[in-house]
Each structure stands twice: as C-alpha cells, then as structure tokens.
Amino acid sequence: MAGRIRREDVEAVRERVRIEDVVGAHVALRSAGVGSLKGLCPFHDERTPSFHVRPQVGRYHCFGCGEGGDVISFVQKVDGLGFTDAVEHLASRVGMEVRYEDGGPTRPGEEPGRRRRLLDAHRVAEEFYREQLLTPAAAPGRAFLAERGFDRSAAEDFGVGFAPQGWDGLLRHLRGRGFTEAELTASGLVSQGQRGIYDRFRGRLVWPIREVTGETVGFGARRLLDDDNGPKYLNTPETPLYRKSHVLYGIDLAKREISRERQVVVVEGYTDVMAMHLSGVRTAVATCGTAFGGDHARIVRRLLGDGGGAGGVQLVGGGSVGGAVVFTFDGDAAGQKAALRAFGEDQSFTAQTFVAVEPSGMDPCDLRQARGPDAVRALVQARQPLFEFVIRSTLAAHDLTTAEGRVGALRAAAPVVAGIRDTALRPEYVRLLAGWLGMDDQETVRRAVQDAVRRGAGRTGGDARGTQRPDDRARGGDRGRDVAPEPVRVARMATPDRRDPVAQVERTALEVVLQAPLLVPEDFDALAPDAFAAPAYRAVHEAVRAAGGVAGARAHVERAGGASTAWVGAVLEEAAEPVHALVTELSVAPLPEDREEALPGYVRGVVMRLVDIGYTRQIADVRGRLQRMGPDADPVASRALFTELLELEGRRRTLRESA
To answer: How far apart are CA 215 and CA 77, in angstroms?
Structure first.
C-alpha cells in the first residue's frame, strides 16, 4: 500500500537500533543476569525495578504493569508518536533512510534526506540563538526574562535564545555551515524579499518549538524593541517540518510527566509554560499561535494513553483515556471565549476536561511573579469541569433574578447541555442546570434539553446523540499518513499459575527457546503438539512450531549475526493476538542461571526436563489404557501397548542417564 514504510526497512530498524540505548535515555538500566538489564519502569510508579530489557532479542517487558514490546513500540509509548514517526525517528538515529511502498526513498512528496537537513538547520539555528543571548546586544532579552522571574538557568533549560537585530546574522551563520538557499527558504528560518532572503527573526527573544522527540522544528519570537513594528509574537511559518496545528510548545519537556501523572495542562504562552514548570506543574504545554484543536488532541491522547476504563477522558468516536486535561485561560472576556472555543472545537476530551481561570485575570507567569509557585499549583488544583464553566458562563449573561432572565438563560444553556456527547453525563448536568437556574422543576429543564437535542442544537464536534460524524471517522490520521486507528484492547490469555511445577518447566522451556535458541537441543522440535499442558504455553509453542521451531530460529539468528530479534518477531507473527504480550514477557524474563559459562547446560537441562515430563505423561497414559483392558482384551493390541510402554520407559531411562 502506498504511503507505508517497507516491511524490510521496519525490520532493519528493529535490528540496527540498540534498544538498550533508546531505553537507557529514559531509564537507568543495570545488569540483571546474562544478557538482561533492568530498571524502574517509565510507565508506572514503582520503587523496586520490575522493568526488564533483553538487548539480544530487542524486547522490553515490565513485570509490574505488563507493558512490553520492541524498540519501536517503546518510542511510540514514551514519546507519544505514531508508528511511522517512531520508525523514522529511530532510523535517523542510525543514519538510515526508510523507503515507502510506493517506491519512493522517503515520505511521499519529500526529497531524500530533506527532512534531516531541515532538522539540522534548526539545530544549528537554536545553538546560534542561545549563544547570542549572552552577548551585549541581547540585554533587552535578558531583562525581559529577569523581570518575569526567569534566570539564566531557566533560559538554558528551555533553550531560550536571542535573534540579533541585523538582517543576515543567522543567514550568514547557516551558509557558513553548508546550508543552501533552497534549504534555508524551506526551513522558514529566513524570509524572501525583493533583494533576496533575510533573517525572519530579528531583535527578538526566541523560544525553540520542538516535536515530542525533542527535535526543534520551529521557533516562536517575542518583540522586545520599540522600533519593531511587527506582531508581538512571530512564529515560524508553515513548513515541511512545522505545522502549528501539530505542535505543542513544551511537549518534549512535559511528555514523561504527562504519561506519569495522567494529566496535561494547556496554557496560552511560552512564558506561561516556563512559569508552570518552574512552579512544579511539569505537565504544562502551549499551542503556538492557534487554538487547541483535534490534531493537538491526538498528540495528548497518545501520551495520556488508552485507558478504556470508567472515569477516563471520552474520545471522539467512543472509548476513553484515563487522566485529566486542564485548560488555563485568562479571566477576561477573551479567556472565556477561548474556553467556549475549546468546548465547541471537537469535544475530543469531555468528561475529564477542566478549566482553571485565575479570578483576578492574571496569567500563570504573572501569578508566579505576584504570589509565588504555590499560587500557580493552587490554580491548577482549583480547576472546574469544562462543561460547568461553559454553562455557568452562558448563564452569567442573563439576569437570573427575573423570570424572563431565567427563561432566557435556560434557552441559551439547554443547547450546551444537549451538546454533551456522553449521554450518561447529560442527565447530571440537567440536574445541575436546574439548581443553577433556581428552578425546582427539573422536568422543565429536561424537556428544554431534549428539544435542543431534537433540533440538533449544540452539535459541537458531533451530533448531540453522541454519534460520530463521518468526517471524524475519515480523518483519523496523523499528518495524513498511515496511522492506525485507536488500538483495540485484546483480552490476554490467562497466564498459568507460577506455583504449578509442571507449568513452571513449560514456561522456562519457552523462555530459553525464545532467548537462546542456538543453545536449545533439537529434541525440542520432537515435542508433540500436546507437550504443553497449560493452554497459554501451548499457544506459544504452536507459534514457535509455526515459525520453524529450533531449526527456523537458528536460521533467523544466523542471518541477524547472532541476535534473536527477528526470531522473536517471527514467533509473534505466528502467535494469536491474545498471547502476544506473553511472548514478549517470555522473551525478556530473566533466566535463573546468571553464569554465562553454565548457560548451555542450563538450557539443555530445561528442555530435557520438559521431554522427561512428556515421556512420563505418555507412560501414564499407556499404563492406564493397559489397566483398562479386561481379561478378554485382544492379545495383539495388548502386546502392542506393552511394547510401546517398554519403549517409552527405555527412552526416559536413557534420557535421565544422559542428564
């Protein structure tokens, strides 16, 4: 299919990128035995490490929360990326250029290597701006920061820089680093004039705008000088890297805390993000010159994670995300309009969406300056449900002391309640609206809301019955590329009781065949399909057999230069969906034997114990059949069973003697 990365390139990324390096950037890993590393899980809070990585198989698994997968899924989860972006990000780490199914060497419509060159230009530009902040000419910028309580350390943490006043300071610097005029024009770092290109940002304080991966894709610049006739804030224009509806300032700094705390706080400006983070609210982000929209919601949704349980944030088209989304707005009329726009935009988040408005009208940056970090944290904690805020804002425009005012307020607020897509939540707001109006008769309010539903009023991002618009279903993509729909949770097959000694032998045998297939004796391939009694382990064994067994594993490992990454991937392809997580868990689980020189003997011993159990099970079956034969049994059949019993006992005896 056109637009999808070629399968062989995806596999190459899995094999070339060292999972321990990628995970190690987020988790402090230490040795946990032969070929195993462990650390504190980045996906849930824990004090004792239960997060394991096995570089040889290219997999990770947390034995605490159950998260697991390969290096691509780790980046997707920890950075909130779609599959395509995760693969391209990892490919860039090893200097690899992925190809797409339509035959192109890179993303459709892009020249080979162009994205990397534009990213490099932004990296160099950010370094240039940061250096300029230390020069005498940047004194107005340093003063601006100091007046708002931001010291040099804060500026460095957020990458704040200064664009010098000249027309070509950055231009000359980038040309000196080998960037072409075409690249600079495409980057948005320069503007086109009648006499040629010149620096877009001049005499301004500059903030780098980064993707969730931490790569800079644009800049936001604040006016400082009186003779600057440009807008107060000037951002990078739309470019192949920068689309304002797809970026959130501060997301690279907030992503881990968003995932950990299950909360995101949306503020209105760069200094507000800085103030929030420095006050301890490290989940704050800001839009860049545009309202919070559906594409922003998708970024946040991936970081919050797909919960599926009660009390989550309701998603477009159903489902839920655990956590809370808090919008902070100024307390003035513009702030109220922004909150109403957030309600009407898409309702990507509803049940757990909140508004935090400072009564005196101060933004988070001013609030930190005036009252300190505690006041900023208190602002977020005093949040109000978005629906309540919108309804109360609607009521505030009416005089509720008069009958006419209450009726007018009901007519204005009923469509808002009708627009709540969660039909289970709507009746509760009918009750609340009646109380806010001072009406004892809830039935009147309920009828008004029902009338608004029938009229189709309040269709803000979907109809009032909670159904999904056709364009919602069609547009569920990230940047128009091949992003899969929201994941469907598949029930996991029950894991056998670890206290069962036979089940434990079966589990360990599967662990060694997935992790160390070159050491597994060929006797493993002779095991019968019913050699595994536990249903979950039998399903994994079937996938191992379908992937070629030990012989197939050796072929995969030899082609991969000794790594088991492709082998585990082959087993996963053959495995039923409910046991995928179990395959990953078995491929990462630490082996009891932590001495490398003793590992071959341990692996053989594990497999031989399983073969022994199989012989014992067969011997018991044959003996039972012999005992059930009466005195009138066919002597030929009886002798055949007896002969089979002797052969099985002989094989088991030989096996035990060779152990």
So the answer is: 17
Tokens of 416: 């808002």
Q: How far apart are CA 150 and CA 401, in angstroms?
A: 47
> How far is 421 from 469, CA to CA, in rounded Å?
12
Return the SS3 of 592. Answer: coil
H-run or E-run covering 303: helix 294-304
User: pLDDT by residue (tens digit) across 92-144?
Assistant: 888 888 888 765 555 555 555 677 889 999 999 999 999 999 999 999 999 99
**What is the predicted pLDDT for the residue at 240?**
87
Beta strands 324-329 and 353-357 are parallel
Kind of pairing between the strands at 59-62 and 190-193: unpaired
Collect contacts of 333-340 with beta carbons under 8 A, ≥24 apart: 335/361, 336/393, 338/268, 338/291, 339/386, 339/389, 339/390, 339/393, 340/390, 340/393
Which residues, 6+ apart, have CB-to-CB distance to 55 below 8 Å?
18, 19, 20, 35, 37
pLDDT at 502 > cutoff 90: no
Q: What is the full DSSP assignment across 37-51?
A: EEE--SSS--SS--E
What's the token pair of residue 223?
């006016």
Query: Residue 134 and residue 66: Cα distance in Å, rounded?
Result: 48
Encode 606-633: b = buried (16+ Cβ within 10 Å), e = exposed: bbbbbbbbbbeebbeebeeeeeeeeeee
- Cα distance between residue 211 and residue 123, in whole Å: 12
Number of CB atoms found within 10 A of residue 385's CB: 18
Question: For 189-239, how does the pLDDT look when each residue is reduced to its tens digit (9 = 90+)?
Answer: 999 988 899 999 999 999 999 988 889 999 999 999 988 999 999 999 999
Task: Say which residue the tokens 């490919």 belong to.
Answer: 91
In angstroms, the CA 254 to CA 264 distance is 8
DSSP class of residue 491?
Answer: P
Cα 415 from chain centroid? 35
| CB-count exposure of residue 594 (10 Å: 0-12, 13-18, 19+) | middle
Cβ contacts of residue 577 below 8 Å, gap of 6+? 490
CB 293 within 8 A of CB 345: yes
Categorize the per-residue pLDDT at 339 as very low, low, confident or very high, splitting at 50, 70 and 90.
low
Most confident stretch, 19-28, 126-135, 599-608, 645-654: 126-135
Distance between CA atoms of residues 273 and 263, nearest Å: 15
Please name which of 139, 472, 484, 450 lies closest in space to residue 318, comparing C-alpha atoms.
472
Write down the pTM of the prediction.
0.65
pLDDT above 50: residue 489: no
Question: Which whole-number Å values give the CA distances from 148 to 151, 365, 369, 420, 459, in the listed order?
Answer: 9, 7, 7, 39, 41
Q: Which domains does the chain have, with CATH numbers?
A: 7-93 (3.90.580.10), 112-242 (3.90.980.10), 254-282+302-396 (3.40.1360.10), 399-480 (no CATH), 501-658 (1.10.860)
